[in-house]
Design brief:
It contains nine helices and 13 strands. The chain is α/β, with parallel strands linked by helices. α7 runs parallel beside α9. The chain starts with a helix and ends with a strand.
């Protein structure tokens, strides 16, 4: 058919078309859109904190997620993100996929499962067959009670120790429940967009003793606002990564490249970080959110 021929021709020219992308969203541009479509429902501005109702309770939702973009910092050896406008509003009418006035846009991308804010599966760090991929991880490990501690004062490439964690837990009267998430803030996320090459080096992380203690305490997931839950010294110099080894031996998840942990209003919260259900995936980007009851 003529439509099939048009689509075949489009597929051939895909590489040159791939560089086209819509301009970044701005409030001013949306205001113009709303003038054209005045019946659009009101939509709150994107913010770190949002008021949400969950099971009849009013909560503050803190967005802990970095965006996915070709400009993201990339961990060594990992695939970079590529995005392109696969079909524009003009294309779908030109190729006979819609009839005016209706049209749509399709943005395509290739992305590593460990891009931006993401969760590692057990199979990411366990080589034997039978280790759980990300699509088989139970929901209760991605929706769980959590606490956070602040280590923005730590020196570059240093280690966060068990006594340091215990001291903050005493100070803030925190307890670790079985099946909980433990997040630690280093402040490193502030470099994610503005200094990507600085972001991927010199960050602090947990030491082996503290990681084992967290697993003994019933933690099922540890997360950081840096490229790794291990110190950069482990990633780049020693190359042993005791936190990841703990996750292998104890079957614990880890989340990396979080942001704004230090903006969660309370030290105890409910965590939600749902991965894509990627068959046999060894990790997935997540939309991470902390819920605190008002």
């Amino acid at each position: 058919s003529s439509s099939a021929s048009k689509l075949a021709a489009y597929a051939i020219r895909f590489p040159t078309h791939a560089i086209l992308m819509r301009a970044d969203w701005t409030p001013e541009a949306e205001a113009n859109v709303r003038q054209k479509y005045p019946r659009m429902v009101p939509c709150p501005a994107p913010t770190v904190h949002s008021k949400v109702e969950v099971l009849g309770h009013t909560c503050t939702a803190t967005d802990l997620t970095n965006e996915i973009s070709p400009s993201n910092p990339t961990f060594k050896g990992h695939q970079r993100t590529v995005m392109w406008q696969h079909l524009s509003h003009d294309d779908v009418q030109k190729f006979g996929l819609t009839k005016a006035p209706y049209s749509y846009e399709v943005v395509a991308f290739t992305v590593c499962g460990h891009t931006s804010t993401h969760c590692d599966s057990i199979s990411h760090i366990v080589p034997e067959q039978g280790a759980r991929p990300i699509d088989k991880t139970p929901l209760q490990w991605h929706m769980a009670p959590g606490i956070w501690v602040d280590f923005a004062h730590k020196a570059p490439s240093s280690y966060i120790t068990k006594p340091e964690i215990e001291a903050q837990m005493r100070e803030h009267k925190l307890t670790l429940k079985p099946g909980s998430v433990f997040l630690f803030s280093t402040g490193w996320y502030k470099k994610f967009e503005t200094a990507p090459f600085e972001y991927i080096r010199d960050y602090p992380g947990l030491d082996g003793e503290s990681a084992e203690w967290l697993a003994d305490s019933g933690v099922i997931c540890v997360g950081s606002d840096a490229p790794s839950v291990d110190s950069f010294n482990e990633v780049a110099v020693r190359m042993i990564q005791p936190v990841h080894m703990m996750c292998r031996e104890r079957g614990v998840l880890n989340i990396e490249n979080l942001r704004a942990i230090d903006q969660i209003p309370k030290r105890s919260f409910s965590f939600i970080g749902l991965p894509l259900k990627i068959k046999n995936g060894c990790g997935s980007p997540i939309r991470a959110v902390a819920l605190t009851e008002d």
